[in-house]
Design brief:
Length: 501
């Protein structure tokens, strides 16, 4: 039998539909792989062995009874720990939510269950999605399966590492400033940030409500498209959800045709600060696309130079508001201050937030609260929103002339664990190419582009809002060209992890 952990989601879908394997076999193979390697990778915070196998048995029974099933029915999946899940802990990587089991499912989780996809468990993440390395998790860092001494990206490093380590064929992530795409780039996987509002955020523990977006993590572009069609669509529970007819992402990924596609190379998203190997892989990808019929032009988005500064005012400000609910009064951790016999609510709140939040969360909450304070709101948060408008206008202008934009996803490959923990600015700069898409609400995809010093790097495509299908066409076309060049997907070149005995 084929090694089920190495099969793509599309391949597993075909095997299941043809009754060549059962969902129990596929799910058990994934659970066995998690048991074997996750002690080293630490992609998961919670593994739902019994529930996943029960769901697998249920879909096998439904298939045997001839019930109509979704394309991905029986294919197991991992879910980022920022999404609420009935019967499983949801911590968002924070001590302040340790042990909390939500009473409701996020809409995306409900859609996975409706599609009969067994949920393997919850993946590790930077606390409340604040970070670019998954080192800010209260439960310890995740490691990159390509080299367990380096980071897997963040905040969704757990989801990316689970897919890269063959612990799950698919995963769900969330992207506030690159938290799906940057981990995908540094782990050799595919990550998609859909158009803002294209996937419901109901049940996502919010970091910055105007920036957050849930999306797929996979090993191929087609697999991402298959998952996107499961989780996308309008949701009346989410006031920001778009009620627009969906295009076929799967059809676009299967088309994979660059003939006549106009591709803009963003001048501001390259050059100084970008690793030489990253630039070389990017230039090779551009050359391949040119030979395949794409029309390549350089474009300029001058407001992008201010994107990082604007983002790190908008995000902390919204985080300050969103995280105010963690007050020790209603749910989650409660800590009494030492030496106080009858503490006030304010004293309990202060002690709880001090004990429950990590350093990076505290840093951003202080910054955000300051930016929103009386006398500073217009100077900081208000000015950042004006820059955000200029960035959106830059996108509108260049998309009048090109179909998609293209850049490196991240300026460097993965770095050594601990190397940037004492330098927050160096960490923040890793999102310089991904942040503009979140500020403007447009979709983006990261596709593996090769190796730099033995570690994966990615290429990013961006498209206008609601034109996510363009990403799947361009991404799948580049993926096909690179597979023809390498003879395998990049993930097929990954070194084998040491398996636990």
């Amino acid at each position: 039998m084929t090694d089920l952990t190495k099969a793509t989601a599309a391949e597993l879908s075909d095997l299941l539909a043809n009754k060549e394997v059962t969902s129990r076999e596929v799910t058990q193979a994934a659970l066995d792989r998690i048991a074997a390697v996750d002690g080293e990778v630490h992609a998961f915070l919670h593994v739902a062995n019994d529930a996943a196998l029960a769901d697998a048995d249920a879909v096998d029974a439904a298939r045997a009874a001839g019930e109509p099933l979704a394309a991905l029915a029986g294919v197991p999946i991992a879910v980022k720990d920022a999404l609420t899940t009935v019967g499983m802990p949801t911590t968002s990587g924070s001590r302040i939510l340790e042990g909390w089991v939500p009473p409701y499912d996020a809409t995306v989780v409900a859609k996975l269950k409706a599609a009969r996809m067994p949920i393997l468990g919850k993946t590790n993440m930077d606390e409340f999605a604040m970070g670019s390395s998954t080192e800010h998790s209260a439960y310890g860092p995740t490691r990159n399966p390509w080299n367990t001494n380096v980071i897997p990206g963040g905040s969704g490093g757990g989801s990316a590492a689970a897919v890269a380590a063959f612990e799950a064929p698919l995963a769900i992530g969330s992207d506030t400033g690159g938290s799906i795409r940057q981990p995908a780039a540094v782990t050799g996987t595919v990550g998609v940030k859909p158009t803002y509002g294209g996937v419901s955020r109901y049940g996502l523990i919010a970091l910055a409500s105007s920036l957050d977006q849930i999306g797929p993590v996979s090993r191929t572009v087609l697999d991402a498209a298959l998952l996107h069609e499961v989780i996308g669509g309008h949701d009346p529970k989410d006031s920001t959800s778009l009620d627009k007819p969906a295009t076929s992402f799967v059809a676009a990924a299967q088309r994979a045709d660059l003939s006549g596609v106009r591709v803009g190379i963003v001048k501001e998203l390259s050059g100084e600060g970008f690793d030489a190997g990253v630039k070389q892989r990017f230039e090779e990808a551009v050359a391949l696309m040119t030979a395949a019929g794409a029309d390549i032009v350089e474009v300029s988005c001058p407001s992008f130079v201010h994107a990082l500064a604007a983002y790190y005012l908008v995000l902390p400000s919204e985080a300050s508001s969103n995280l105010a609910k963690f007050d020790a009064m209603r749910f989650g951790l409660r800590v009494s201050p030492e030496g106080v016999s009858e503490p006030s609510a304010e004293q309990v709140m202060a002690a709880t937030r001090d004990a429950g939040f990590g350093d990076e969360v505290k840093r951003r909450l202080i910054l955000g609260t300051y930016a929103l304070s009386s006398g500073y709101y217009d100077a900081y948060y208000g000015s950042a929103q004006k820059v955000r408008t200029l960035i959106a206008q830059d996108f509108d202008r260049v998309f009048a002339d090109v179909d998609v934009l293209m850049s490196p996803t991240s300026p460097t490959p993965a770095w050594q664990l601990g190397a940037k923990l004492d330098d927050p600015m160096a960490m923040y700069l890793q999102d310089i190419a991904t942040i503009p898409a979140n500020l403007a609400g447009i979709p983006g995809i990261s596709v593996p582009a090769g190796l730099s010093d033995g570690l994966p790097v990615g290429v990013q495509f961006l498209a206008p809002a609601l034109a996510d299908d363009r990403l799947y066409n361009a991404g799948a076309a580049l993926e096909r060209l690179l597979v023809e060049k390498w003879g395998t997907h990049l993930i097929g070149q990954a070194p084998e992890l040491e398996v636990a005995r």
